[in-house]
Amino acid sequence: MLVICNGTFKSGSSWLHAILLEIFRVKKIHIDNIPEKYNPDIKSPTSILEKKLPDFFKNEDYTRLNYLTKAHYFSNQIILESYPNDVKFIFIERDIKDAIVSHFYHFNNYRKKDLSFNNYFKFIGVFKAYEMCLFNTRCKQNFDSDLFFSFERFKSDFTNSVMDLCLILGITHISKAEILEIKENTSLNKMKTIAKEGGNKYYPELGKNSHKLFRKGNVGDWKQYYIESNLKVINRVIQLNPPLYVKIGYFFMFTLRRKIGL
């Protein structure tokens, strides 16, 4: 079985990945190592690059062994494909407004910038928000709704969220004590502590500062950041009816840049 934790950037895919790792651990289900050839960056939680996924299916015995990877797969080639039962795509999504606030901090930490949120939103965030919405919409076109989990539901109903995850994995029973253990081991404080101690697998490129990318994880944090004009724009983006400049800017900043490899 290959389990792919797929979600747009800053949606909670690292949290989902950690939860799934803990489910496998407490249920004593062995996870096999994914060969490095599918992503030479061995520290990355994305063990299979998007372009390498077809090769993985050709070469690896995922019907007999168990594999798990985090991903941000977005291409039509991957998302619109049909998959056998041994391939489990599990998605997580988050309020786009909160996800953009999280990306704002990620951008400043990763790029070592000191942009205000307003400037970040105007020149970067609004286009990233459009990509997040396109990502979620495309994924929902080809996968069953029960494969989609929300960051907010994990926050408010962790127990039933984990039980639903188990059903997708074919695990028919998990105890309350096991769920509590999973919750404790995947808490924000726990993940921050592990990052500070050098055990972080999710943002290794930032080294000792990677713990800064595990923030508050609060639902509705966006209310402290958006001015009225930006809120009007992002609400249009969420409805996939963005101003024309957003579509044009997104094409040049994301689509075209990626095509030419910049």
List keywords for this structure.
262 residues, alpha/beta, Rossmann fold, four-stranded parallel beta sheet, globular
What would your notes on this structure say?
- The longest helix has 24 residues, at 117-140.
- The protein has a four-stranded parallel beta sheet, sandwiched between helices.
- The protein is globular and about 50 Å long.
- It has one domain (2-259): Rossmann fold, CATH 3.40.50.
- The chain has helices at residues 13-26, 53-59, 76-79, 96-111, 117-140, 151-156, 158-169, 176-185, 188-196, 228-238, 244-259, and strands spanning 2-6, 67-71, 87-93, 148-150.
- Helix content is 49%, strand content 8%.
- With 262 residues, the chain is of the alpha/beta class.
- The model has no long low-confidence stretch (mean pLDDT 89).
- It contains eleven helices and four strands.
- Helix 1 packs across helix 8 (176-185).
Mean of residue pLDDT values: 89
* Helix and strand pattern: EHHEHEHHEHHHHHH
Which word captures the global form? globular
Unreliable spans: none
Can you tell me the CATH class? Alpha Beta
Tally of DSSP β-strands: 4
Strand order of the largest sheet: 2-1-3-4
Provide the CATH architecture: 3-Layer(aba) Sandwich
Number of domains: 1
Per CATH, the superfamily is: P-loop containing nucleotide triphosphate hydrolases
Using only CA atoms, what is the Rg? Answer: 18 Å
Given the structure, what is the number of helices? 11
Strand content: 5-15%
Based on secondary structure, the structural category is alpha/beta
Which oligomeric form is depicted?
single chain
Largest sheet: 4 strands, parallel
CATH topology: Rossmann fold
- In percent, how helical is the residue content? 40-55%
Distance between the termini: 35 Å
